[in-house]
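Hello Y.,

Per our agreement to keep a running log of every chain we model this quarter, I'm adding this entry. I've kept the format consistent with earlier entries: sequence first, then predicted structure.
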Amino acid sequence: MKLYRSPVCSALLLLAAACTPAAQPAETAPGEAAAPAGQWSTGPEEKKIEPIAAMPVEPAKGPHSAPDVNPFAGAGLYVNPDYMAKVEKTAKEVPEIAPAVKKLGKVPTAMWLESLGALQHLPRWLDEAAKAEKAAGKPLVPVFLVYDLPNRDCSAKSSAGELTVENGGEQKYRSEFIDKIAEQFAARPKQKIVVILEPDSLPNIATNLEIEKCALSEKIYRNSVAYAISKLSLPNVSIYLDAAHAGWLGWDGNRAKIAQIFKEVLDQAGGPDRIRGFATNVANYTSLDGEENRKLESSNPCPNEHTFVEKLNANLEAVGIKNKGFIIDTSRNGKDGIRSKWGSWCNVKGAGLGERPKIAPRPLVDAYLWVKPPGESDGTAERGAPRFDESCVGPDSDPAAPQAGEWFQSYFVGLVKNANPAP
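Predicted structure for the entry above:
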């Protein structure tokens, strides 16, 4: 989410290394490249740096889930008890929001696999989801966000990851991360699973190759994402590839560019049928509808996420990627008009919970989901702290924010109070 890169370094875990993807700075005019977190590009993209060579990818040939079927249809969504424990604790400590939290009920959120250490929780999450499914008497789909790419988030500090090319990160990503996840998924062939794959990765190479780290990482990103798709596209797993958001890729040139990148990466992985679709607005604040953002970026033909999805789908179909579904993250996009610039992404003040998770709410949209767990910080506002990003002390950001991924109680309270629709 580079538009204004929203460090998405917010895992459900309370790991200090967790990071939420950031939304990236939108381009200043059609054809210009988006700039690093919270800044704006000042000139046309000009690739000058030779990317690092990447390990080859063998295209997947085995069976996979039906690419033209909404995996959420006829199913419920699994509620992560780890997240709900934080919510309920906050409701007890802030009684004024308790009635609203009670009305919200147990809202499902995605579970973040954002580090090698996070994998220790995966078997438990899958087993608990299976037990809950049995008790419910119908499928309950757990949603996992997979987010530990080598050289992760090349244009943001707050969401930088643990794996680098220099420390053997490409091989570790494959053998110690993706392969381990694939083993757990394959061991439960009857359990329906959804994966949202690597926020900010391919969008970064679509718009940010003027940044040295992004230019160096281009082939690493392409091949690592292709490898993840090839290994995780199992018969019981539906993959949604991250597609940033309207404020990052909304311009005609950016949409055309990312569609071509998706085609090339999917061809490497084994073809477009290896995935179900695309996820947008992860950890972002862009509204589903409305024209408010035209005041910030009048040149962007996509002022909201629904328009973005419709136009991006047309770009995808033009390159042969057809019949795909979309997930839109509605965890924090309930209030529009809260930013002074669209590129603000870090703990934006005045935000509110958006639409509750909902299956097939509109054409093209498989589901609204709370991908970013509301209440988990995007990044610290403490200068000098590890992973500090200047964007987190901007005029639109909450000045009391803790490290990315940590529980930000006062911010959660604000999200509940500003929820739209109201609880």
